[in-house]
Amino acid sequence: MVSSKDVAKYAGVSQTTVSRVLNTPELVKPKTIEKVMKAIEELNYIPNDIARSLVQKKTGIITLISGPLHNPFFVDTTTAIVNYVNDRGYKVNVYFGTEDNLDSIYNSVLETKADAIILSSMLYKDDIFFKLEKLGIPFIMYNRKHQENRHFVEIDNVEAGYIATNHILSLGHRDICWIGGPHEISTFYERYKGFNNALKDNGIDAETMPIFFTNTSKDDIKRAFEEILELPKKPTAICAATDAIAIEILNLCLERGFHVPKDFNVIGIDNVELSKHHSIALTTVGLESEKSLGFIAIEKLFEVMEKKSACIQQTESVKLFPRNTTCKK
Questions:
Q1: What is the rounded CA–CA span in Å between residue 94 and residue 5?
Q2: Which strand (E) or helix (H) includes residue 63?
Q3: How far apart are CA 130 and CA 142, in angstroms?
Q4: Of 276, 221, 267, which Cα lies nearest the Cα of 240?
Q5: pLDDT tens, 316-327?
Q6: Which of 55, 52, 45 lies closest to 3, judged by CA?
Q7: How far is CA 6 from CA 10, 13, 44, 246, 253, in A?
C-alpha cells in the first residue's frame, strides 16, 4: 500500500508538507499543492484514516436516531451521545425521527455503512429490530425497549410512573389526570402502568380518572388540556408521562391565567436539564444516577463494539425530585 512517505518522495517534498496539503492546504503554496495532489493521483494514494477503515472494515461513524428536539430529553441525550462519540475519535450521523419520517430514516440507515447504531425511535413491536440484528453490527436502544427484550438501556419506567403518582397521592390529591403518549412505545405504556398500579394500591379505581393519550405534539397536548378544562370536575393534579408534556402544560396554565401548584399540581418524568431551571422548577422523577441516559447507553454501545459485553439489557433506578410544581392539597 502506498504511504505518505512515498507521496512525499515522488513529489519531492517532506511528509510534513504532504500532511499540510491534506489537512491545512491554506498554509501551503499553490504550486506545492499541485505537485502533491498530482503525486497522490498518480500513485493512487489513500489517506491513512480512509485506508485504515478499508483494512479494518470500519467507518469511524456511529449512527444516532434521536427523537424530535421539541422534547428536551432528546436535546440532553443527543448532546451527551455526540460529545462522547467525538471524544472517542468517531463521527456521528444524527437523524431526528418523528412519526412522519421514520420509514425514510430507517431506509437511509440500512443503506449507509456505520460501525454501530444507537436509537430512541423503536416501537415495541417494530420490525426494524430484526433488520438491525441482520445487519450484524452493534446497536442499542435508549429510552425504548422492543418486545424481544434485548439491546436496550432504559429507566425503570413502571417505577417512575408509580413514584410520580404516589407522590401526588401522598399530598392529598384524589382528582388526578394522566397525560401520556402512544402505547406502541414501551416508555409510555410502562409509565402508564405505574400510574395505574399506584392508584390501585391506594384503593382508587383508575377507570374513574380522566386519561389522555397524545401524539406528544404541542397541538395535541393543548387539545388534551382544553378537554381537561371542560370536565365537570376538574382535576387538582396532572401527571404527565414526560417532562416535555409537563412543561407544555405549565405553559398552557400560564397562558390561561392558572397558578401552579395552586390551581393544578403538575409532575413529569425524566428530570431533564430544563426542569431544573429555577423559572420552571418542575417536580419530576428521573435517574438516580447523575449521568444522562444517553451517556449510559453510548458507553454500553462501545462496550459491545469492543467485545466487552454481548447483549445489553439494562434498567436504571429512578427517584423523585420534588420542586415547586406540587404541594399539599
A1: 36
A2: strand 61-66
A3: 17
A4: 267
A5: 999 999 999 999
A6: 45
A7: 6, 10, 11, 62, 69
Instruction: Domains for the chain: give ranges and CATH numbers.
Output: 4-55 (1.10.260.40), 57-155+291-316 (3.40.50.2300), 157-289 (3.40.50.2300)
Whose grid coordinates read 417536580?
A: 283
Q: What phi and psi values does residue 319 have, to the nearest 5 degrees? A: -150, 165
Strand partners of residue 213: 180
User: Cell numbers of 233, please?
Assistant: 370536575
**What percent of the chain has a predicted confidence (pLDDT) above 70?**
96
Could you tell me the three cell numbers for 324? 415547586
Question: Which three-class secondary structure state does DSSP give residue 59?
Answer: coil
Of 80, 119, 137, 95, residue with least CA distance to 299: 80
Q: How many residues does the chain have?
A: 329
d(CA 239, CA 31): 68
C-alpha cell, 304: 459491545
The C-alpha cell at 99 is 412519526
Residue 175 pLDDT exceeds 80 = yes
Model confidence at 1: pLDDT above 70? no
Query: What pLDDT is attached to residue 4?
Result: 82
Query: 3-state DSSP call for residue 78?
Result: helix
* Spatial distance between the Cα atoms of 284 and 243, rounded to a whole number of angstroms: 7
